[in-house]
Amino acid sequence: MSEHPNRRDFLKTVGTVGATGIAAAVGAESPADAQAAAAQANAVGRVLSDPAPSHAYTFLTAPEAAFIEAAVDRLIPADDLTPGGTDCGVATFIDRQLAGAWGSGDRMYMQGPWDKGVPTQGYQSPLTPAEYFRAGIAATNAYCRKTFGKTFDHLDAKQREEVLVGLSGAKITFEGGLPVRTFWGTVYQTVMEGMFSDPIYGGNRDKAGWKLIGFPGAIAVHRENVEKYRDKPFPNNPVGIADMS
Prior knowledge:
The protein is an all-alpha fold. The chain has two domains: 7-206, no CATH class; 214-245, no CATH class. It has helices at 7-12, 31-45, 62-75, 90-99, 129-148, 157-168, 180-196, 208-213, 225-228.
């Protein structure tokens, strides 16, 4: 990962990241360890001494929001193609997902057993996605404090780069045994979803992600334009769900 990640390389990973995304199962802690990690994360999340986040959030505490904003702006830096990830609404999208049915594991089987799974078995954790996200943020900030003496959002660009590379390659180990690769896969997957989902869900603000890749939007009547505009800019503005209501 370079100091300014290449947008084309980022987009190329969209179709291949599934193996390490939300559904990835790369290890599971015991219920006792998981609940301890969640309790610790909740305690850390209640510390609100950091500066207020740039947007209002439903689920994320101020320290958690600071982490997410710093991460998404590093993964999607502002340039001549789009604003930064936070200004594109990616952090807002993540917050809403964590506060909603997906974050609470509403459609997940959460009764165990919690044996360590393999990637083909799906999400394997007694923690809900929201609890896992919270625990992962707390664990990453704990690593950053131990390594750099400050939390992730206070690191400089080079240090943030080092941490994100460490997470993506599972070169960082979380104290308590929380699987690093699952946390990173979940974060990365939700960042991509927030950048390219319909704006009605909070991300892809001003349809920045769709404009970036030339996606026409929610209406599926552009089959005849696939060849016509191949390797050419699509001339019309994309249409979202809200535009059709």
